[in-house]
């Protein structure tokens, strides 16, 4: 069976009990995760958490101590050559040939893959505002990053593995990169996108996972997280304060009446009912703001932003949804 035919049949990424020890140090501990076609998975964690180790296992650059990593149905370690052919990879520190220009890098990668991807590469480079005529040694950090992105996406791979790909890239170009990623997933492609912060991946990720000290401690659909997010609502009334009406709306919590000002926290699902109550009264001032997603996510899983895990998941912001990973 040809590699392409073999690739067609399987899910994109499957990690099963994946563990990697370096001597006594367990860099990755029993990680199980599936990434499906068309999905962008945001892989988050602080320095030294195990993100790069996961990616290197996935790319067949490291041999697992136990467990397995498979990519498009291929064993990442035993079939690493086929994996490399099928995956577009942007490493944290792109390895480029100093003397070669962008065009020469593109030609070299086309040659390695026995296909001509020059036209699409030139198009992606133009969108990222990257000059392919310059030798790599003259490129700034951000432009090196852009060239690595061009080389990763040019063959239109089924899977992109991106190790902090936008860390040196300015916000406007990040948006272009996000739209390239969306086109990739619209065509059924998948991506594993690692980052230190949720902000970097929240616009493009379908799911996010957090790795801490080698363990996958949380996996969540961004859509579900957003639906559970709490909004701070505050309204000042000229006339009667509809406190009883507010209290009766499911999900409303921390209700407080201070003179003619009413405030509470409410899930997204309660906002429509609250707005109708507010608009039925005589309003002098109104405010509704969403808690930052990162704060919510970390708080829900009892994780502090600095990286250490607290004793138990906090119930205060996230209601009753269960902790799940997979
Ligand atoms: N080749 C190696 N030999 C020994 N220990 C290693 C090796 N590679 C990684 N480690 C250790 O494994 C752990 C996880 O490192 P890893 O590079 O995967 O983290 P990371 O999440 O990618 O961090 P960063 O965001 O800083 O890149 C760390 O404790 C690191 O010191």
UniProtKB/TrEMBL annotation:
SUPFAM superfamilies: P-loop containing nucleoside triphosphate hydrolases. Pfam families: ABC_tran (PF00005). It is a peripheral membrane protein. SMART domains: AAA. The keyword Transport applies. Keywords: Antibiotic resistance, ATP-binding, Nucleotide-binding, Transport. Residues 13-238 form the ABC transporter domain. It is found in: Cell membrane. InterPro entries: AAA+_ATPase (IPR003593), ABC_transporter-like_ATP-bd (IPR003439), ABC_transporter_ATP-binding (IPR050763), P-loop_NTPase (IPR027417). One of its GO terms (molecular function) is ATP binding. Belongs to the ABC transporter superfamily. PANTHER family: ABC TRANSPORTER ATP-BINDING PROTEIN, ABC TRANSPORTER ATP-BINDING PROTEIN NATA. This is ABC-2 type transport system ATP-binding protein. It comes from Pseudarthrobacter defluvii.
């Amino acid at each position: 069976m040809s590699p392409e035919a073999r690739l067609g049949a399987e899910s994109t990424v499957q990690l099963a009990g994946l563990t990697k020890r370096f001597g006594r140090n367990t860099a990755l501990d029993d990680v199980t995760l599936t990434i499906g076609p068309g999905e962008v998975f945001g892989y988050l964690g602080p320095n030294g958490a195990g993100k790069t180790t996961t990616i290197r296992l996935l790319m067949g650059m490291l041999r697992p101590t136990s467990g397995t990593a498979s990519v498009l149905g291929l064993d990442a370690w035993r079939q690493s050559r086929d994996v490399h052919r099928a995956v577009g990879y942007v490493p944290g520190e792109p390895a480029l040939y100093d003397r070669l220009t962008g065009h020469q890098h593109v030609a070299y990668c086309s040659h390695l893959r026995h296909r001509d991807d020059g036209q699409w590469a030139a198009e992606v480079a133009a969108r990222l505002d990257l000059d392919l005529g310059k030798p790599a040694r003259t490129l700034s950090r951000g432009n090196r990053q852009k060239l690595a992105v061009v080389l990763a996406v040019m063959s239109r791979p089924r899977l992109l593995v991106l190790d902090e790909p936008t860390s040196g890239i300015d916000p406007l170009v990040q948006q272009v990169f996000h739209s390239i990623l969306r086109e990739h997933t619209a065509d059924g492609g998948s991506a594993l996108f690692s980052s230190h912060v949720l902000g970097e991946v929240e616009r493009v990720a379908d799911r996010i996972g957090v790795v801490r000290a080698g363990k996958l401690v949380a996996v969540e659909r961004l859509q579900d997280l957003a639906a559970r997010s709490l909004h701070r609502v505050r309204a000042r009334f000229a006339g009667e304060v509809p406190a009883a009406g507010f209290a009766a709306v499911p999900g409303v919590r921390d209700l407080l009446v201070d003179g003619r000002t009413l405030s509470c926290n409410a899930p997204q699902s309660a906002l429509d009912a609250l707005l109708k109550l507010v608009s039925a009264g005589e309003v002098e001032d109104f405010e509704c703001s969403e808690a930052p997603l990162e704060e919510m996510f970390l708080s829900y899983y009892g994780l502090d932003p600095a990286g250490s895990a607290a004793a138990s998941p906090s119930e205060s912001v996230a209601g009753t949804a269960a902790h799940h990973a997979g």
